Every structure is written in structure tokens, then in C-alpha cells.
Amino acid sequence: MEKFEKQFEDLDVQTQTMENAMSSTTTMTTPADEVDTLIAQVAEEAGLELDEQMANAPLGTTSKAEQEQDELTERLARLRNQN
Prior knowledge:
With 83 residues, this protein is mainly alpha-helical. The chain has a domain at 1-55. The chain contains 4 helices and no strands.
């Protein structure tokens, strides 16, 4: 059983190493201009206008939870100031 566990661990390490090598190779060999062209082509086929949507996209939005947290913080500060 111990031999099996050792082989399994070795296989896991080899698999991770291979996956990392494949992913970095793919990333390094894909030219950025080809990626941009593909994105534009897919957007055109889907009828999207990327430039317009990207320009109108909000830069930073707060979630509802963050807004509620901010409101609670403000209420707590007001309560502390009253005492």
C-alpha cells in the first residue's frame, strides 16, 4: 500500500508539472494581436460593439452588501456622536 501511495504522489507531481508547462507554453506562444482579432471577430458575429460597451462600463461599482455596510458604519458613527 505504501508503494501505491508513493506512486500516486509521484504521478500527481508529474501531472501538475506537465499542466504548468503546457499552460505557460500556450500563453507565451499566443500572439496578443491574434487574441484581440479573435475577440473582435466573435463580438462582431454576436452583434456586439465592444468599444462602446467598454467605454460605458463602470470603473468601480459597490455591491449592495458594501453599501449596506457603509450605511451601518455611518449610523454607528452618528450613534456614538450622540452619546
